[in-house]
Amino acid sequence: MKLDLHPTVKLLKKKAPPPRATLDVSALRAICLEAGADDVGFVELDRPEVRDQRDDVLSVLPGARTLVSFVVRMNRDDIRSPPRSVANLEFHHANDAVNDVGRTIVRALLDRGHRAVLPSAGFPMEMDRFPGKTWIISHKPVAVAAGLGAMGIHRNVIHPRFGNFILLGTIVTDIALHPPERSVPLDYNPCLECKLCVAACPVGAIGADGHFDFSSCLTHNYREFMGGFTDWVENIADASDARDYRARVTDSESASMWQSLSFGANYKAAYCLAVCPAGEDVIGPFLASRKDFTVQVVRPLQEKKEPIYVIPKSDAEAYVAKRFPHKIVRRVRNGLRVNSIEALLLGMPLRFQRGQSEGLAARYHFSFYGSEHVDATVDIRDQMLTVERGLNGVADVHVSADASVWLGTLRKDKSLIWALLTRRVRVRGPLALLRRFATCFP
User: Fold this and answer.
1) Quick one: how far is CA 269 from the chain centroid?
2) pLDDT by residue (tens digit) across 118-137?
3) Whole-angstrom distance, CA of residue 66 vs CA of residue 69
4) Which fold has domain 341-439?
5) Largest CA distance in the chain
6) Can you give the pTM of this predicted structure?
7) Are 323 and 317 spatial neighbours (Cβ–Cβ below 8 Å)?
8) Where in the sequence of the chain do the CATH 3.30.1050.10 domains occur?
9) How big is the chain by its Cα radius of gyration, in Å?
10) pLDDT (tens digit per residue) in 378-422
11) Topology of the domain covering 14-178
């Protein structure tokens, strides 16, 4: 017996656009620009540059084929303003604009019968994964693969025209571009390597030789994001009373944290982005007079009296004392802790303090058992760090430890002395070398 469809279903089937697997490249570009994007590029999901993101992309949209990377410009004089409230307002508005533009593009694609998803430009993220990878799309490598810019030494994407005064968005779609467009990375890097970002960074996170100290940048610039918020909460928990809390956290810091919680987390610096002169629309004043550019843009940020947040005995603390003695050093914890050996090993290069490793040349073997069975070799020499899986070469120090106990000592939940006495942690080799190792990851 044949069943008739409900009249509403018949009507919907008649009105629904036919599913389409392909879209003309020029048409897709026009949709994005009309939605408000300032530039756009496309990356096929099978490209090697985004292969490491493939699983996350497919978890968002099974059947995805293409990543649409787009750019929204920011107002650069706002970003350069010494009062950070001006800069942060621009960051927040531009971030909202990225999400609005992306949502408009997705709606246009859906109306044409395609599938498309917009992962957030920033927050919200998948916090159930914390402290692992909480974001879905790494926008910067997608933008570079799409030919929208190249990474500068300050680790920001520099657009050839707009410079680094941009925010990025990425749309995941099942569209197969027609004709296929092979967006390729730029064949040059707009970064001038002028080192103004090096000069402006208040914590020395950007090395003139290209080294980047992620930990120092995270601790200060992102003070009111997840790590600093956790530290603030722990200060509340640790305080014996209101007077003790005020001794730990200044009134202005309490007010600033309230503002971040109420209106959106604020950046403390982002000076590297502010002073960058690269990009066709940006470079004019720098070329006209580097001296005037430095006086008008760079020096006001350098001379600003402000608190600088550092981890005690880190490279950043020494840098601020030497380079910016007029700024106020605030010793804090970054509030981020690892919960697995895998995360520990992956995070080591991000936390490594090369200044603290000066004069150290040693190889360390780590053998973890219990909840995680992992062997690793860590080499520190010539102020450089290498982390390898397996026990390679001859070690100066061999640490054998129960994984959960070792993580507990790092989180300060367990005593290292207790762990050594109970032989849950065993060390072969000079303890002095192990202590030197610890100073490289304060």
Assistant:
1) 14
2) 999 998 999 888 877 889 99
3) 10
4) Nonspecific Lipid-transfer Protein; Chain A (3.30.1050)
5) 87
6) 0.90
7) no
8) 341-439
9) 25
10) 999 999 999 999 999 999 999 999 999 999 999 888 998 999 999
11) NADH Oxidase (3.40.109)
